[in-house]
């Protein structure tokens, strides 16, 4: 007996987009569009009638703001939501707010009339719908929630580095890791699977929320303590050396594991250039990107952490890393930041002995 199909409800004010999404989704043997809606008002009744497994939601629509609708939905009937976003500064900021409100992930709006990249787009959206159907709906972070208590960092040398990789669910997971870190934390390099145009807004948002400074990485810049550097969308981030200093290197080479930026590319470079001076962290995400690279970091002497299944939105990348023996420890998301600082302190004590 075959498994039931994933039921998808598409909400978008563009009839062309609704038709395109329906065509892509219905071409898959394991999913189907059970209904479409031009706005959230119409979507409310369709959700009750069809009980979809996943909702695709345009970020900007008439009659009711998509964010208002999402906030109410996640409070009253939490379900996996995949945002469909325009590739603009405003679109990226709205999308990041949607992820904060509990949306699982996002895809960019397709370029209508350009069929050459449509196969890759279809693979991306259907992969994300499958991950969404298997995911755990998250509780949205309350607007009035107090900021997390800032942790106390040990004295660290400029040699210490934290290397983080994430995908689906990663924007909020990375926020959870960075927010409690004190201003004198070790330098942090981050690869989050995101398209170009979104990572700058992501970095700026984190910079406003965190005690450390957060920015998009620039090619050749020195890696400094108290700073986090995010791989720009569509560009690999690598760790390199320039004399006695660590520097960032950006690389527009081909995708690795279908991703650019790729977590494996960052982790491989950290294994080669930093060895035991780096700590590797693999957070929530679908697929296997980062698993092999985390193993290389562990083999090079780095402590390595993988997020546990219970706290992952999608337990894909961490599961692959654990299966490879790449993780020296498996921890819940809210334990990652304190564990990182304990590892840094332990490393510092070992060097002084």
Automatic annotation (TrEMBL):
Positions of the CheB-type methylesterase domain: 155-347
Protein location: Cytoplasm
Signal peptide residues on this chain, from the entry's feature table: none
Molecular function per GO: phosphorelay response regulator activity; protein-glutamate methylesterase activity; protein-glutamine glutaminase activity
Coiled-coil region(s): none
Catalysed reaction equations from the record: L-glutaminyl-[protein] + H2O = L-glutamyl-[protein] + NH4(+); [protein]-L-glutamate 5-O-methyl ester + H2O = L-glutamyl-[protein] + methanol + H(+)
Pfam family, one: CheB_methylest
Active site: 167, 193, 289
Keywords: Chemotaxis, Cytoplasm, Hydrolase, Phosphoprotein
Keyword presence, Lyase: no
Function: Involved in chemotaxis. Part of a chemotaxis signal transduction system that modulates chemotaxis in response to various stimuli. Catalyzes the demethylation of specific methylglutamate residues introduced into the chemoreceptors (methyl-accepting chemotaxis proteins or MCP) by CheR. Also mediates the irreversible deamidation of specific glutamine residues to glutamic acid.
Protein name: Protein-glutamate methylesterase/protein-glutamine glutaminase
């Amino acid at each position: 007996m075959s498994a039931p199909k994933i039921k998808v409800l598409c909400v978008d004010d563009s009839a062309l987009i609704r038709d395109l999404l329906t065509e892509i989704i219905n071409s898959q043997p394991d999913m189907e569009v059970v209904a479409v809606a031009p706005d959230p008002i119409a979507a409310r009744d369709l959700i009750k009638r069809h009980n979809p497994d996943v909702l695709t939601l345009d970020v900007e629509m008439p009659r009711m703001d998509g964010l208002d609708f999402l906030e109410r939905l996640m409070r009253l009937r939490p379900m996996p939501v995949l945002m469909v976003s325009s590739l603009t500064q405003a679109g990226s900021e709205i999308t990041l707010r949607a992820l904060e409100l509990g949306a699982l992930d996002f895809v960019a709006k397709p370029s209508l009339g350009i069929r050459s990249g449509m196969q890759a787009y279809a693979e991306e959206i259907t992969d994300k719908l499958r991950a969404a159907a298997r995911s755990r709906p998250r509780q949205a972070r309350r607007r009035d929630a107090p900021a997390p208590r800032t942790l106390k960092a040990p004295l660290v040398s400029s040699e210490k580095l934290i290397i983080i990789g994430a995908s689906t669910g990663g924007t909020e997971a990375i926020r959870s890791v960075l927010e409690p870190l004190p201003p004198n934390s070790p330098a942090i390099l981050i690869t989050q699977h995101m398209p170009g145009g979104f990572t700058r807004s992501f970095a700026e948002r984190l910079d406003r929320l965190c005690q450390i400074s957060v920015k998009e990485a620039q090619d050749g810049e020195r890696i400094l303590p108290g700073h986090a550097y995010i791989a720009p969308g569509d560009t690999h981030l690598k760790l390199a050396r320039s004399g006695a200093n660590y520097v960032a290197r950006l690389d527009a080479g081909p995708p690795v594991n279908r991703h650019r930026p790729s977590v494996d590319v960052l982790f491989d470079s950290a294994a080669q250039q930093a060895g035991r001076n780096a700590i590797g962290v693999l957070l929530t995400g679908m697929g296997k990107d980062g698993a092999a690279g985390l193993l290389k970091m562990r083999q090079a002497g780095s402590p390595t952490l993988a997020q546990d299944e219970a706290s992952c939105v999608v337990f894909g990348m961490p599961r692959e890393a654990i299966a490879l023996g790449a993780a020296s420890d498996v921890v819940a998301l809210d334990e990652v930041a304190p564990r990182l600082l304990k590892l840094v302190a332990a490393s510092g004590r070992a060097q002084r002995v």
